[in-house]
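Sample intake — Dipeptidase
Collected from: Streptomyces siamensis
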Amino acid sequence: MAELQDELHLTSEVGELDPPAVWPESEPALLGTPGPAGTAGGDPLERAHAFLAAHPVADGYSGLPWVLRHLPWYDLELGETSVDTDVPRMRAGHVGAVFCSLHLPEGLAGDRAVGATLEQLDLVKAVVRAHPEGLRMTYSASGLTDARNCGRVAVVLGPAGAGALGDSLGILRALHTLGLRVLTLAGASWASEAGLTRFGEEVLREMNRLGVLADLSGTSDATTGRALAVSKAPVVFTRSAARALRPHPVNLPDDVLIELGAAKGLCLVPLTAEQAGPSVRDVADHLDHIRVLAGAECVGLSGTYDSGAAHPQDLSDASCYPRLIAELISRGWSASDLALLTWGNVQRVLRSADFTARAAQQRREPSSARIAELDG
C-alpha cells in the first residue's frame, strides 16, 4: 500500500509539472501595454478575441442536456433561440470544450436516478453524432486538443450526480466505460454533513482508479476536507465562486481556497448572478480573489448556461466570454495566467486524473465494496 501511495503522489506531480507554455513574443502584444491605473492600451475586446482564438475556453458546466431533453426539435449547428448554448454562439465565444452536466432535478433517486442519468448520457452522445461538423465527444486531455485542432468543440460527459451510482461501484465503472469523467459528491448518503463515510472514501478511491474527477461543489466542509485528504487526483469545484465576495452556500471560504491551491485542485467560477454578482466586473473580482489565494493554476470558468440560473449583464450566453476576458486584460492579467484560466487548468486536471488512474490500475483491483458492508 505504501508503494501505491508513493506512486500515486509521483504521478500526480508528473501531471502538474509539465513544462509551461512558451509564449511567442507576439502574444503578449495582443494583450496590450498596461496603461495608467492598471488599464491596457487599445481595445481590450479586440485583443480578447485574438487571444481566445489561440487559447479557447474550456467551459466547466453546461445544463444543455436537460433542456434539450424537453425540446421537440432542435438544430445546434444552425442555432437555437430556446437555449443559451449552440454551435454558432460557442464559436463566437471561442469555446473549445464544454462539460455537459448529467445532473437531475431534485426528487429523483434510486433506480429512477440511475435510469435518468443514462438517458441523459445517451442524449448527449446522440446530439454529438447529429452535429459532427461542430461537436466531438472526448474523454481525455489529448482528446480536447485533438478536437480543437480539428475545429470542433470538445464535449465531455459530466458532472453527474452521486445519485446516478445507486450506491454501487459497479454502476460507477459502467458509467465510466460509457464516458463519464466527473461525478458530484454532494447529495450522497456517504458524503453528508458529517463527511465521507468508509464507503464514501472507497468510492473516491475507485474514482481515482478509473480517472473520474471528484466535483465537490455543494458538499459540506467536512466532506470537502476529507476528499482533499483522500483523493490522489486533483479535485474540482465545478460551480463555486468566492464566499468572501458573495455569501452563497456553494461558494468557497478563503481557507478552503487556500487548501485547494495547496492540493492543486481547480475552482471553476460560475457565470451566474446569484453566485458571482450582476456584472462582468463582479465575476472578474471573484477570479482575481481566487487567483490570489489559490494560484493562477487553480481557477477556471464555468458558464453554467442552460441551468435555469440568471447570468450577469453582458454574460447572457456562450458567446459572451470575450467580454469577460477583455475585463481581465484591462486589469493586467498576463498571457500565461489567462491561458491557464481558459484552457490550461482543465487540461492539467484531466491529465493528472489519467496519470493517477494508470498508476492505481497497476496495483489496485476494481473494488467490490458494498455500502452495507462498510457503513451498515
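Post-analysis note: The CA atoms of residues 210 and 316 lie 36 Å apart.
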